[in-house]
Amino acid sequence: MRAVVKIGGSLLKSAQHFVEAAKFLSTFESPVVVVSAVKGVTDMLIELYKTRNESLYEAIRDIHVEIAKKLGVSGVDPLLRELKAALDLPEGPDVLDYFMSFGERLSATIMNGLLKRMGMDSKLFIAPIITDDNFGNANPLDDRSLASEIESHEGIAVVTGFIGRTRDGRFTTVGRGGSDYTATFLAKLLGYRRVVLVTDAPGVMTADPQEVPEAKILPMMSVEEAMEAARLGAKRMHPRTFEPVTGGMYVEVRNYWSRGTIVGNFYAPPPYKVVLKCGEGSCVVGLEAEEIVKLGGEYVGRFSALVPMPPKWAHDLFVKPYFEKLLWTS
Ligand code: ASP
Ligand code: MG
Prior knowledge:
Layout lengths: L2 E5 L7 H11 L6 E4 L5 H11 L2 H18 L4 H11 L6 H25 L4 E4 L22 H5 L3 E5 L2 E3 L5 E3 L5 H12 L3 E5 L21 E3 H9 L18 E5 L6 E4 L9 E5 L2 E5 L3 H6 L3 E4 L2 E4 L3 H9 L11
Helix pairs in contact: 2-3, 2-5, 3-4, 3-5, 4-5
């Protein structure tokens, strides 16, 4: 069974990072690989769009030229020339998306080149998802005309995350942090069941470990709970990440070494999964949010409630009591 494996930008900082990702990918059978931009590059491209600053362009160029050179892959130069030419374009939301598209186009080009150099049958697919023209926050359309080519390629398919294109061929983006959403959407579009989101965190945590040091990795979580956690701002997750996960599809949120968190259409314990900072208080996400509302909490979603206390307290009260009763992965 073919999996869609997304490699986050936080794992793509240097040539060595690309090698590490490629080694991980080689353990899957003909995966569809969704790649984010190299860490920090999307922010740099937005800044470049605003300032058209030559030295910023050079910094972006140098990051990619250095990685490509170290890995011995080609294909970044034409993209960098195209970006240079874009500096003369007028302002406009479509032009901003065009600028941002270079991040994923460059990193996916490098990843594809590296996999090929390692002897794998890899093919590059630039923005195979068709979207509407709501630039900056485009909606992917149920249109397989470009994506179906991925299916007919038998080896590894490397796909740009985050970006799509309109029917008339202009680049769009689906919103910041959107590569995860690209991965789940593509899996749904192509009928693949397994999505692996590889990031620098070992899984979905019960709280932000900076705020709650004893936070644990959740072994499992329902799609509904994950959707609410994402919507309430869990770890910069794109709010639509889990929307396409229906039927027998499931998502693993993990790093290279962990077993991670499995998100699917099932109702696993514990009753309360995640505590997030919500304004002055905390939002507790879990299937039994109703019980918290009975105690005086306030619904912020069907499976989430707001309580007037810091995350540490809410975690002690609602999540921690279940630590012992579960098979926790950490
Ligand atoms: N590169 C995009 C961003 O920084 C998308 C992503 O990383 O998921 O927002
Ligand atoms: Mg991301």
